[in-house]
Design brief:
The complex is a heterodimer of chains A (422) and B (459). In chain A, 30% of the residues lie in helices and 24% in strands. Chain A is an alpha+beta fold and 422 residues long. In chain A, helix 9 crosses helix 10. Chain A is globular and about 85 Å long. Chain B has 459 residues and is of the alpha/beta class. Chain B has 3 domains: 204 residues, FAD/NAD(P)-binding domain, CATH 3.50.50; 107 residues, FAD/NAD(P)-binding domain (3-Layer(bba) Sandwich); 111 residues, FAD/NAD-linked reductase, C-terminal dimerisation domain (Enolase-like, domain 1). In chain B, a hairpin with a 2-residue loop joins strand 5 and strand 6. The chains are: A alpha+beta (422), B alpha/beta (459). The interface between A and B is medium-sized, with 15 and 16 residues.
């Protein structure tokens, strides 16, 4: 028997620290080769760490949320043969023994009860008893329930004859959506609360949003755009080419408008390194596409939008957004944008105040498209109207330039033929 | 004017409810004062459970000895046993003294201040005991109960209550017991065994009217064998010229010459005579109405035990007292036992825990009812006890046990097992699958469960 140690791999260029997001194994588990043992996360991407060997987990090197140095011990596995790690007496002493103990002790109670609880719940739907039905439970269980402020009436009994066991009470207590104390059919007071550790992607989002709000002098600008002609064009293109080239959403048109307008506003397609006090104006337009993933906001990047056609940009947007949603986006796909586009589609509301995706200096937000009565040449006509809500870093983008940029985008979108006139 | 005493918990009554509440409160660090007008231990220790069991033991021993004056199958013979009842009472008093001084020591050990005297309630937070004002945060009423008196049979002289019956100076020639409930029968049987002629007059049509006929039949047989005369369906009219007068309600008159009449027609909550009325608490007849936490209609005024109504049992009062102390200490508690055992120390003994077949039927529960007779139990035979049985009531659908009843020699000791099985939510299979020691009466418990499952072994 030998020991195999997996160290925290270097998963991005020049990254010294990686956050441990989640363990998929616990101490004592027998794992197979290639089985994923953990998720770790860099600035941009979540990466799965597979085990190169089969064996039994001896120790875990950290707990979820912990930021670990690249090269530090991630997991220790007992393997057949000699393994890759020899505990020399010195090494044993030099190694941070408390950390190993901690790692072995801590994650276990965190991870272990969860599957059990889930299983109990899956098998046992909560069936409130009739008001006159006395819940069946031993005196010890009844006392524990009273101490915990739980009405046993609402606790499922998995024991013989529906007897409520200590395990049932444990499961009820650990269930976050506890309906304890709720009167049948009434609106019960809720005293439960759940603490969600801010780790992983959420911590990243929180840090970046806070950082952006603290550093960037946000200037938001909202303009109304008549997209009747654009919509007509889009529908015509979809009718004609939809089957062969794929359906177009509004996004590739917006991207195209930004690409064209940015030619005259290089200060907006820029990144601002406020520590070095340097603004970098980019020739390439790498458009960040704000995307809602399961765990939170991510911004995968449509690279070189200036070189793409409507359809190639459309399919690339779809691809990177899908990858981000499924946590499969690579570090490259999640970094390097020069400007960001954010759209909530039908949920877009009438106005939003997007937060600049630093170090970029501009973000364009798309609001909901609606048919509205509009006065044109003294006539009230129904037009498809949509707002653009955009934010700029006022430190480096003047209000006048920002307004002119959005007006240019508007002009292009309202006369969509201009999008394609070079 | 004495100094005002301030305390967190003031308990009126040092019976099983009050003293247990005080001990538990002491354990929980609650400053506690207990007021008792008579002796610590209340009715239970002084003039109830304990002395009656002592007297019943004396009676049984004497009865057995007397049996041996005639040819005995056990091969024992004695010439003629004599009873010195004053010595018997002395022995009984010794037990009572030991227990009551034990209670006093326990209270002292737990830092409870005991004040001897009669309490008078001034308001929900203050009580006066013979000029001494006591101010409290919580008032616990544990004043117990007293024997119900009959207007046509005022206690005095030949008319006695259970209190006097437990301290006889001499055996009466003929004792007429008014009331065929458990107190009347326990004492009536004891007096009979001690040599007195005993008659029992009961207004209803059977003895132990709170129990079903099947369960009381062995007791009725035993009473008949002992030579106790039973007058059922007779209402007492009075006592005159050494005779108890009763009528059967259909014109028939009963005239029983009796040198002593024991009135044992029940107990009434002691809720009058100490200023309780001034609190204007919600009442339930003579009993103080309480909720599931033993709280009265007034905040921080609590009531436990007999003064809070039926069932008037010491073990219920004790459990309530313990609970109230914990509530006052800030714990969440509710009085919600699965069952409270009721035991009747007649000969044979009767024990009832949980639902009877009749009660289960009234609630529309489909039940299995099975009984196992002691006639088929080896231990019972070796105790010369052939009558009686253990009966179990269980749900038909999931075999959950709902109740136990037993009648027979020494079945009172089975009550713990019965109550435990109900509290733990046992099913028939649980009891049937528990190995019960041989030879014990407990085997009948297992066999009753087996019989309910259709495969009793010894019948």
């Amino acid at each position: 028997m030998g020991t195999h140690v997996i160290k925290m791999p270097d998963i991005g260029e020049g990254i010294a620290q990686v956050e441990l997001v989640e363990w998929f194994v616990k101490v004592g588990d027998v794992i197979a080769e290639d089985q994923v043992v953990a998720d770790v996360m860099t600035d941009k991407a979540t990466v799965e760490i597979p085990s190169p060997v089969s064996g039994k987990v001896l120790a875990l090197g950290g707990q979820p949320g912990e930021v670990m140095a690249v090269g530090s011990e991630l997991i220790r596995i007992e393997v057949e043969g000699s393994g890759n790690h020899v505990d020399t007496p010195q090494a044993k002493q030099a190694e941070p023994a408390p950390a190993a103990v901690q790692a072995a002790a801590r994650p276990e109670p965190r991870v272990e009860p969860q599957p059990q609880v889930a299983a109990t719940h899956a098998a046992a739907p909560i069936v409130p008893r009739e008001a006159h039905d006395k819940p069946l439970a031993s005196p010890a269980v009844r006392k524990r329930a009273l101490d915990a402020g739980i009405e046993l009436r609402y606790v499922h009994g998995s024991g013989p004859a529906g007897r409520i066991l200590h395990e049932d009470l444990d499961a009820f207590i650990s269930k976050p959506q506890s309906s304890a104390g709720q009167a049948p059919g009434g609106y019960g007071k809720r005293t439960d609360s759940e603490q969600v550790p801010v780790i992983g992607l959420r911590r990243k989002i929180a840090q970046r949003m806070q950082d952006a709000k603290r550093r960037v002098a946000h200037f938001s600008y909202v303009e109304e755009i008549d997209v009747t002609a654009l919509e007509a064009l889009r529908q015509q293109l979809n009718a004609k080419h939809g089957d062969s080239r794929g359906k177009l959403t509004l996004l590739p048109f917006l991207v195209r408008a930004m690409v064209v307008a940015l030619r005259d506003f290089p200060q907006i397609n820029a990144t601002y390194d406020d520590e070095a006090q340097v603004i970098t104006r980019h020739g390439a337009v790498h458009v960040g596409i704000a995307t809602q993933g399961d765990n939170g906001l991510m911004v995968p990047v449509l690279r070189h939008a200036e070189a793409g056609s409507l359809w190639s940009n459309a399919s690339e947007i779809a691809r990177v957004a899908h990858a981000a949603r499924n946590n499969k986006a690579s570090r490259e796909e999640l970094s390097g944008s020069t400007i960001t586009l954010t759209s909530l589609g039908a949920l877009g509301g009438i106005v939003s105040t997007p937060v600049v995706n630093t170090p970029e200096v501009a973000i364009v937000g798309v609001n909901r498209m609606v048919e509205r009565p509009v006065v044109i040449d003294g006539q009230i006509v129904v037009r498809k109207m949509m707002n653009l809500s955009s934010s700029f870093d006022h430190r480096v983008v003047d209000g006048m330039d920002a307004a002119l940029f959005i007006q240019a985008v508007r002009g292009l979108l309202e006369q969509p033929a201009c999008l394609f006139v070079e | 004017m004495q100094e005002l005493i301030n305390t967190t918990l003031l308990i009126i009554g040092g019976g099983p409810g009050g003293y247990v509440a005080a001990i538990r409160a002491g354990q929980l660090g609650i400053p506690t004062v207990l007021v008792e007008g008579q002796a610590l231990g209340g009715t239970c220790l002084n003039i109830g459970c304990i002395p009656s069991k002592a007297l019943i033991h004396v009676a049984e021993q004497f009865h057995q000895a007397s049996r041996y004056t005639e040819p005995s199958p056990l091969g024992i013979s004695v010439s003629s046993p004599r009873l010195d009842i004053s010595r018997s009472v002395e022995w009984k008093d010794g037990i009572v003294d030991r227990l009551t001084s034990g209670v006093a020591a326990l209270l002292k050990k737990h830092g409870v201040k005991v004040i001897h005297g009669w309490a008078k309630i001034l308001d929900g937070k203050s009580v006066e005991v013979e000029g001494q004002r006591i101010q409290c945060e919580h008032l616990l009423l544990a004043t117990g109960s007293s024997s119900v008196e009959l207007p046509m049979l005022p206690i005095g002289g030949p008319i006695i209550s259970s209190t006097e019956a437990l301290a006889p100076k001499a055996m009466p020639e003929h004792l007429v017991v008014v009331g065929g409930g458990y107190i009347g029968l326990e004492l009536g049987i004891a007096y009979r065994k001690l040599g007195a002629k005993v008659s029992v007059v009961e207004a209803r049509e059977r003895i132990l009217p709170t129990y079903d006929a099947e369960l009381t039949a062995p007791v009725a047989d035993s009473i008949k064998k002992l030579g106790i005369a039973l007058y059922l369906g007779h209402s007492v009219e009075g006592y005159a010229d050494g005779c108890l007068l009763a009528s059967d309600g259909q014109g028939g008159q009963l005239r029983l010459e009796a040198d002593q009449v024991l009135v044992a027609v029940g107990r009434r909550p002691r809720s009058k005579g100490f200023g309780l009325e001034s609190l204007d608490l919600k009442m339930n007849g003579a009993a103080i109405a309480i909720d599931e936490r033993c709280q009265t209609s007034m905040r921080n005024v609590w009531a436990i035990g007999d003064v809070a109504g039926e069932p008037m049992l010491a073990h219920r009062a004790m459990a309530q007292g313990e609970m109230v102390a914990e509530i006052i200490a800030g714990k969440t508690r509710r009085f919600e036992p699965a069952a409270i055992a009721a035991v009747c120390f007649t000969d044979p003994e009767v024990v009832v825990v949980g639902k009877t077949p009749e009660q289960a039927g009234q609630q529309g529960v489909d039940c299995i009812v099975a009984q196992f007779p002691f006639a088929a139990n080896g231990r019972a035979m070796s105790l010369e006890s052939k009558s009686g049985f253990v009966r179990v009531v269980a749900r038909r659908d999931n075999h959950l046990i709902l109740g136990w009843q037993a009648v027979g020699v020494a079945v009172s000791e089975l009550s713990s097992a019965f109550a435990q099985s109900l509290e733990m939510g046992a099913r028939l299979e649980d009891i049937a699958g528990t190995i019960h020691a041989h030879p014990t009466l407990g085997e009948a418990v297992q066999e009753a469960a087996l019989r309910a499952l259709g495969h009793a072994l010894h019948i």
